[in-house]
TrEMBL record:
EC number, as in UniProt: 2.3.1.51
Keyword annotations: Acyltransferase, Lipid biosynthesis, Lipid metabolism, Phospholipid biosynthesis, Phospholipid metabolism, Transferase
Broad EC category: transferase
Name of the protein in question: 1-acyl-sn-glycerol-3-phosphate acyltransferase
GO molecular function: 1-acylglycerol-3-phosphate O-acyltransferase activity
TM ranges: none
Family: Belongs to the 1-acyl-sn-glycerol-3-phosphate acyltransferase family.
A Pfam short name: Acyltransferase
Lineage: Bacteria, Bacillati, Bacillota, Negativicutes, Veillonellales
Gene Ontology terms: cellular component: membrane
Domain notes per entry: The HXXXXD motif is essential for acyltransferase activity and may constitute the binding site for the phosphate moiety of the glycerol-3-phosphate.
GO biological process, any: phosphatidic acid biosynthetic process
Reaction(s) this enzyme catalyzes, per UniProt: a 1-acyl-sn-glycero-3-phosphate + an acyl-CoA = a 1,2-diacyl-sn-glycero-3-phosphate + CoA
Amino acid sequence: MKAFWYSVIRHIFNIITYGLFRMKVYGRERIPEKGAFIVAANHASYFDPPLLGTAMSTRLIHFMAKEELFKNPLMGRFLRYVHTFPVRRGHLDRKAIIEAMRVLRDGHVLGIYPEGTTQNSGKLGRFHEGMAAMALRAKAPILPAAITNSRTLPKKSGPVCVAFGELIMPEGDASNKDDVAALTEAVRNSVAALLDEYGGESR
C-alpha cells in the first residue's frame, strides 16, 4: 500500500515538474543504475527536492532536510513518508550522520544540499564539508547536480532544468582536512560549471 501511494505522489510531482514547469533534464545517462552514491545540488527553492527527485526517475533519493521542517506533524509525517530525514543545522548531528551512512551502506541514493539552506541571492553559496566527509568515509561517489531557475517558482523566471554532471570519485581520508576540503571544492566547482552552462544561478 505504501508503494502505491508513493507512486501516486511521484505521479503528481511529475505532472507539476514536467507539465506545469516544463522541466528539462540533462545528463540523465550519468546517473548510476545501481549502488550507493550522493547527489549534491544547489538549493534555491523549496521546489528543488521534487524537481531533483522527478529528474532522477530511475532512482529513489533519500534526502537530508533541516529539522525545522519536521516540527509540523503533518509535514513531518509526509517528509518521512517520501524518505526524507531531519538534520540539525549548525551542529554535529550524529543521529543524522548515522542515518545517512545507513542509506549509503544499504546501496541507496543520499540527497544533500551542501549549501545547507536555500540561497535567496541568486548566487551559489559556500558548500559545507559534511557531504565530502561522508563520501570519503563511505567511499561513495558524488553526482553533482544543478537546478536552474527554481528560485521564483511557482512563477517562472526562465527555463527550469536539472543537469547532472560527471560522477566524482572520493579520494583520500575523511580524517584529513585537506582531502575533505579538496573534494568539497571539486563538487562545488562542478555544480557552478553546470549552472553556468545551463543558465542558472552562478558563483
